[in-house]
UniProtKB/TrEMBL annotation:
SMART domains: PBPb (SM00062). Keywords: Signal. Gene3D superfamilies: Periplasmic binding protein-like II. It comes from the Eukaryota. The keyword Signal applies. This is Solute-binding protein family 3/N-terminal domain-containing protein. PANTHER family: ARGININE-BINDING EXTRACELLULAR PROTEIN ARTP (PTHR35936:SF17), MEMBRANE-BOUND LYTIC MUREIN TRANSGLYCOSYLASE F (PTHR35936). Pfam families: SBP_bac_3.
């Protein structure tokens, strides 16, 4: 495909409007004055190769970014690829592979990943996140409680209102210090793609 055609398809306004998920602290590491990190850098490089200016369109939550596809507010969206989103968004190959994990308190009887999806087990996660969507699709027997933020999900675990916390590995490795004798197990990889 010729560069002019790519520009017309990916940057129809003359700028590449890049939807950025600010909630992913691994891919967006700064916000002043504009988003900084891996996702903004990827968008800037695409714009550079297209020969157009990049315009960041920031979203506080991945669900907001994915839902905004209908509004036409972005040309490419840097958000985790999940089958639920593929109905409206065409994803590229992943530009990052981010492991997601379970965290359980030290006194938990759950010792293997396979035991988590059992009747009576309560899992807290962030709704609309790539790992939250993976859980929605794959958890068959446990109860999934999805909340707006990871801090809220962690608080559910600390208060004993859930048995398992599910999140990105790097976040759980910091949260493990707040849960006595906590243990972790990997369950999936979030693979951000782009429309």
């Amino acid at each position: 495909m010729e560069l002019g055609e790519l520009q017309r398809q990916l940057a129809p306004t003359g700028k590449l409007r890049a939807g950025i998920n600010l909630a992913n602290f691994l891919l967006v590491t700064g916000r002043d004055p504009e988003p900084a990190g891996v996702s903004p850098d990827v968008a800037a490089e695409i714009a550079k190769r297209l020969g157009v200016e990049v315009q960041y369109v920031a979203f506080n939550h991945p669900k907001e970014l994915a839902d905004a596809v209908d509004a036409g507010s972005w040309d490419i969206g840097l958000v985790g690829a999940e089958p639920q989103r593929e109905a409206k968004i065409a994803f590229s190959a992943p530009y990052a592979d981010i492991p997601a994990m379970y965290l359980v308190p030290g006194e938990s009887n759950l010792t293997r990943k396979a035991e988590v999806d059992s009747p009576g087990v309560r899992i807290a996660s962030v709704g609309g996140s790539a790992f939250g969507l993976w859980l929605e699709k794959n958890i068959q027997n446990a109860t999934l409680l999805q909340v707006p933020t990871m801090d809220e999900a962690l608080e559910l675990l600390v208060q004993g209102k859930v048995d398992v916390l599910a999140s990105l590995k790097e976040r759980l490795l910091s949260d493990v210090q707040r849960v006595p004798k906590a243990r972790t197990r990997q369950f999936c990889h979030a693979r951000p793609g782009m429309e």
